[in-house]
Amino acid sequence: MSPTIIGMAVAAALAGGGLLLVTGIRQQPADAAPAPGRAAAQALVARLLAATGLSGSDPAIRRRRQFVVGAAIVGLVLALMTGWYILVLVLPAAVLGLPVLIQRAPAANDLQRLTDLDAWVRSLAGILVGGGSGLEQALRASLGSAPSTIRPHLGRLIARLDAQQPIKPALELWAHDMNDHTADIVAMALILESERREGGVGEALAELADSVSNQVKARRQIEADRTGYRVSARIVTAITLVVIGLMIFSGTGIEPYKTPVGQFIALVLLTAITGCLLWIQKLSAGKPIPRLMPDRMGGSR
To answer: How far apart are CA 95 and CA 72, in angstroms?
Structure first.
């Protein structure tokens, strides 16, 4: 039997076995106790889905799963047609990995929201320093001029106050909605003012706004430095794809990789290149500043 036929049979068996495994797990009744082997298979599939970011019922995640399955099917068809059996793994991995390598970091959105929080804190401080209204009234008055990234969270805070929720838990929920270190500091200052009622929160918020401005400047500089890593990752990714494409279409440089051993070596090389690119991308991601207020709300949001 020729190696081509053996490879086709192996690829078909792997695809069919994976399909039967997933189908069997999905069709199991919810109230049925899984057999030990099936439970182990379920745990393995769950770990694989979690590791690849494909677990969950979010519409975007469901679409990503559909793209991955479609890429696996296309890879299987191409493998059977061309003899490149690593395409069964490479194409789904490309669908998962390329968006990660070329996506823009969300730090720009975080910086914009931090800038908007600075502007809102200054506006709220100006209302409170005027002395014409209490804290709850000042929060309501600040909604009209609140920046777009702050307004939805502030609107929910005011809705909770209008529903007669005490201001302390309402501000705690606002901080958890914002999910930001600086928002925690603002919430703690407002909670302190709501308990003391001494009227000094306006000056404290004005000083806090200056601190937020300094944080914005520092984080903008850090983000500018990290941009170089992201640009490098995208350039190297593009060059790698171009080189691989030229090798494939030239037909000569890729001949040694068509053997089973050559395909294994190609898979190892592609894995190493992808790992390096992901490492460069991780260097540019950074880590969020830890929150100050622990999430004690559970699911009460």
So the answer is: 10
